[in-house]
Structure formats: C-alpha cells, structure tokens
Amino acid sequence: MALLLTLLLCSGLGFLPRDGAAAGMGRGYVVTVSTASFAASSTCIDDSPGRVAPPRNGTSAVLRLTHRHRPCGPARASALGAPSLLDTLRADQRRAEYIQRRVSRAAAGLQLAGSKSATVPANLGFSIGTLQYVVTVSLGTPAVTQTMEVDTGSDVSWVQCKPCPSPACYNQKDPLFDPTRSSSYSAVPCGAPACSQLGLYSTGCSGGQCSYVVSYGDGSTTTGVYSSDTLTLTGSDALKGFLFGCGHAQQGLFAGVDGLLGLGRQDQSLVSQASSTYGGVFSYCLPPTQNSVGYLTLGGPSSTPGFSTTPLLTASNDLTYYMVMLAGISVGGQQLGIDASVFASGAVVDTGTVVTRLPPTAYSALRSAFRAAMAPYGYPSAPATGILDTCYDFTRYGTVTLPTISITFSGGAAMNLGPSGILTSGCLAFAPTGGDSQASILGNVQQRSFEVRFDGSSVGFMPGSC
C-alpha cells in the first residue's frame, strides 16, 4: 500500500552554495531560502489532478492527500480553523510521549521485521492524537464521501455513524455515515473471527454485535460497533468487506473530519486488510509546504529504483509502529560525534508527530552544531516556542542561509533535509526525548518532500519526490 502526499516548494527555495559560509562548511553544505516561504499562504499551489502523483506500474490506488488545516484541505475539514503553533506543539508532545511510553521500555527489544514475537502490548487498545493529514474516500453502497485523517501509528479505522446525538459525537461538516442506508453494510457478529481479532480494542458484545473502543494518548476516544462495508479508494479501486469502527460515541480533538484511517502494522489496519490486493506496499510523500497537495499510494511495484533503504524493525513489545535504526546526524557536512549506542532504542517513522524527537545526547549535539553554524550570519535569536528552543527572528531578511542537516540510518540510507525539514516557524524543528533510553521519532516536518516507502521488510527514502 502506498501513501503519497505532494506539496510543491516555492520557486524561491533551493539548495544554493554560498561563499562565506560558516567555518567548517564547504560549498554545497548550506542552503539559501527566501523568507517569503515562511509566511502562511491562503492559496493552494498547483491543485490540478494530474499533479497528484507520479505514474505507477502494476496494481495501485492513489489518493489525494492534503494537510488538514491548510488551503488544499477539504473545506469541511479545515473550516474550523488551524490551531496555534503552541497548541500544535503541546498536542505533539503528548503524542510523542505516548509513543515513547509504548516502545521505549527496558525490556523492549528490536528485531528485523518478520521475526516472530510472543509479546503482546498490554495497552493495545490505545493510540494517539495530533494528526495532520487527510484523504477523502467513500464508504458504503451507494458510496458516501468521508474525509479521514491518516495515521501510521493507529490500526483501527473508524467514522462517526448514526445514531449519534450530540454530545455523544463531535461536530463534523459532513453528514454522519448512516449504516441503514448502505446495502453493503453489516455489523460484525460477536462470534466472528474479525471480532476476536480486535483483541484489546474489543469491549465485548452488545445485542449480538461486536463492540470496539480506541482510546488515544491525548484523552480522545471512539467507541461503537465494529462493522464491515465497501471502502472506495478511487473511482476504480474499492475494497469490499472493509472492517472499521462505526462510532456512536466520540470525544476529543477530531472536530472537522469524519474519522480516521489507520495505516499501522496490525491486522485491523487498511494496510493489512488491503494486502491481498496491493501487496502490503505503501508510500507517502509529505510536502515541503502546507498549501499544496500530496498523494497516498496503495500498492505499486515490488521494488522501485531511486530509494535509499534501511531495514524495517519491530519493537517486541509493540507491533503497531514502523521502526528503523538511526546511525548518525551531520550538520553542514560535518558528522556529529554521537555514539551509536545513543540510538539503540530505534526510531518510529510517524506521520502524526510533527517535529523529530532525538535522545537528549543527540539533540544537544545537533543543537550546538546548528547554533554554531548559524552564528556567523548574525541572525537575531527569538524566544523559544514551546518545546522548540532554538529560534531566530528573520523579519529583516529577504533570504536566509541555513546549514544542511542529514540524517543517516542503518544500511546507509540517508535523508538530506531541505529547508522545510530544518525549520518550522523560524525554529529548529527538533526536540529532545525524555531520556537517552527512549526511542527517537522521525516526525512529519523532516519527512516532507521525501517519498517514504514501506514494503514489509524495509523503509525507503527518495528525495525531491513532491
């Protein structure tokens, strides 16, 4: 399955060598960027259907993916307005802490994907909030449009369903999905294998129907009837018998969207349910700006040239997350002296976390090197913004010059970050975890402009893909 998101970079951005770069940085290890690109835009850039995704060979389904609160997002999903940066960072911190609690335990071990493990997490019924990107699909017969947030850190998909009187459901712009109007809908019976498969997402039975619950790390919840219906991804791609939660009671931070599409690694996720059709391969490309369009691709060739790959790992105590192993970080072409043991807990590749989290030792080395590289340019510092403690005031500048940052992974894969992966709102877009023993998280800011591809055994990165 592949999820691809395309946002186009403003023409003023680019990797430009600059004479007089900071000491220790050669030509090609700095990037000059227009400060106009930092400003919020109300215009959707190049929203033509033909630019949604590159052509693919083989069986695949491509969905249009957009930022939830930005100009290219569905009006019904973005009409309530975007949260402030501080609110976003607070929610992001809750999500990051929750991920780290699940995968960063002293007894947790990492193994190559596909290795057997008998360990099942005790809190499997929980997931996380702070989601950013949405796709529009259709559910039922006749098909009813649903705008759903996508999340690689969740397994169970769900939509709000009738009956759901306020305040049992939050406000959404679309009508609630009405299962009585779909000829292909059915509730999952209590004795069905799909009900047993829910595990700790199950809340037992009600009236012979299988009940589910998902509780998110920020306190949001959804509960209702585990159900089956036809999920239409595109005009020519439909998944019959798709299992999802028909939510009759929700609370939390979902207002404006119709539900959630889980892209995790467990059996309940869309990735797993569609594996017989699309081969378990999926990819996404998160855009360098928030006013453009992206794509989510399910399926595609078994191998694609142009990707640098790293092995996909599994946390033995949590099977939902896509994990990799960091190997190093460089700033301005200079490798930082971080011992490999600092990264031993692995890194979660996550679409829903905003800024990348690094163990404190690694983050401190990155911050020091970045500040030192920025110092010769004389940019005034700005107050910290929430968890972001390295911020600059660029209001007097038409362009600014940044040192490049590169993240490397086991097996030699590398992400050479563009400007949109280095700064957010004038601040270095990285933050520390709660300790060196905790897992890192590769956030969506750093993933922007890369196609990130998952094939069940590896994760690939291809730059300049959107």
Automatic annotation (TrEMBL):
GO BP: proteolysis
Gene3D superfamilies: Acid Proteases
Protein name: Peptidase A1 domain-containing protein
Alphabetized InterPro entries for the sequence: Aspartic_peptidase_A1 (IPR001461), CND41-like (IPR033873), PEPTIDASE_A1 (IPR033121), Peptidase_aspartic_dom_sf (IPR021109), TAXi_C (IPR032799), TAXi_N (IPR032861)
SUPFAM superfamilies: Acid proteases
All copies of domain Peptidase A1, residue ranges: 133-465
Stated family: Belongs to the peptidase A1 family.
Keyword annotations from UniProtKB, A to Z: Aspartyl protease, Disulfide bond, Hydrolase, Protease, Signal
Heme keyword on record: no
Signal peptide start and end residues: 1-22
Active-site annotation: 151, 350
Keyword Hydrolase: yes
Recorded superkingdom: Eukaryota
CDD domains attached to this UniProt entry: cnd41_like
GO molecular function: aspartic-type endopeptidase activity
